[in-house]
Design goal:
This is Radical SAM protein. The radius of gyration is 21 Å and the shape is globular. It has a domain of 90 residues: Rossmann fold (3-Layer(aba) Sandwich). The protein contains twelve helices and 13 strands. α7 runs parallel beside α8 and α11 packs antiparallel against α12. It has a four-stranded parallel sheet, with helices on both faces. Strands 5-8-9-10 form a four-stranded parallel sheet, covered by helices on one side.
Length: 326
């Protein structure tokens, strides 16, 4: 019998499952994603998003004691045993087709396969864990604790390519941030700072170091809380001296503790700075106005019509206003 794996909701290869696979293959076990009508000695599943709790419960009902579920979407306190946590990921676990099938958005089949190949062949992992911040909407402080160093850039490389997906939660808070970026540059890597940069901590030295490495996609950061407006604006100005604003992406959390007027204000400020915003609705909050706002912003519909002219929202307002009254 083999070890079975279930990736419940990851959009990119799931690092925990890759490490579990590597560990068990290393001790001579067969490992594969769960196949229908097959029996497994043990099954490991991972959920990234809290919206997947229902799916996790279904899997528990099906497999009982045989399955072990982890991931932020299920249990933020659960961690991998040390012997698995420090295993090198199994970079052969996912196929290009696996990842391509999880991709959303409008793109040709060829482009989807190209992007999936890039991701599957990339190195990935953390050089640090934890975060110096304690944001009320974030799982990281509870799950990972205080900021600490855990690995070197060289430990994360995949010999298949020079792409590195860096999962560090707050690279710009790292005392070794510039040294790590210099190593990325010297190794001629293409980096995706997957969790974004804390733009409030970007000074000219960090901005210069960020500009000297090749990025897999737009450099991204967040403006989640209104109270940090000045620091975010200063960070964007500093970064923009070295990396043009059209190469920036700013994630904007809505539905947590801001009003819609504050959400719109942040959108307008970012566009004034020529930065592309990307709206994230907190915990998939069931608010039709926020969902319409997210689509209007994220699909770049704002470039062709004003919010007040956005037809899907115009049609939805009558029902929305009736619900709001109650």
């Amino acid at each position: 019998m083999a070890i079975g794996l279930i990736d419940i909701d990851s959009k990119i290869p799931n690092l925990a499952l890759m490490k579990i696979s590597s560990y068990y293959k290393g001790i001579g076990e067969d490992v594969e994603f769960v196949q229908p009508n097959k029996t497994y000695e043990k099954i490991y599943a991972s959920a990234i998003f809290t919206k997947s709790k229902g799916k996790c419960e279904e899997l528990q009902n099906i497999y009982g004691d045989k399955i072990e579920i982890g991931g932020t979407g299920w249990d933020i306190n659960k961690v991998l045993p040390k012997e698995i946590e420090f295993s090198k990921p199994d970079y052969d676990l996912y196929s290009v087709e696996d990842i391509a099938s999880r991709m959303r958005g409008i793109m040709t089949k060829e482009r989807k396969l190209q992007k999936a190949t890039e991701i599957v062949n990339a190195g990935m992992g953390f050089t640090s864990r934890g975060c110096v911040r304690e944001c009320g909407f974030c799982f990281v402080p509870k799950k990972e604790g205080k900021f600490r160093h855990v690995a070197e850039i060289k430990d994360l490389l995949n010999p298949k390519s020079n792409v590195l997906i860096l999962h560090d939660n707050n690279l710009t808070a790292d005392p070794y941030c510039i040294d790590k970026l210099k190593e990325v540059k010297e190794r001629k890597l293409i980096v995706d700072i997957n969790q974004g940069c804390d733009v409030r901590l970007v000074n000219e030295d960090i901005a210069k170091a960020l500009s000297e490495v090749r990025h897999l996609r737009s450099i991204h950061y967040a403006w989640d809380l209104m109270g940090f407006e000045n620091q975010v604006m200063e960070g964007i100005k500093t970064l923009s001296k070295f990396i043009k604003p059209y190469r920036h992406m700013c994630f904007t959390l809505v539905g947590f503790n801001t009003t819609f007027e504050e959400d719109m204000y942040r959108f307008i400020k970012l566009r004034e700075m020529k930065v592309d915003p990307f709206v994230m609705v907190y915990n998939q909050k069931d608010d039709k106005r926020l969902k319409h706002f997210a689509r209007w912003v994220n699909s770049r519909i704002y470039k062709s019509c004003k919010w007040e002219e956005y037809e899907p929202w115009i049609k939805a307002q009558v029902e929305y206003n009736q619900i709001s009254l109650f």
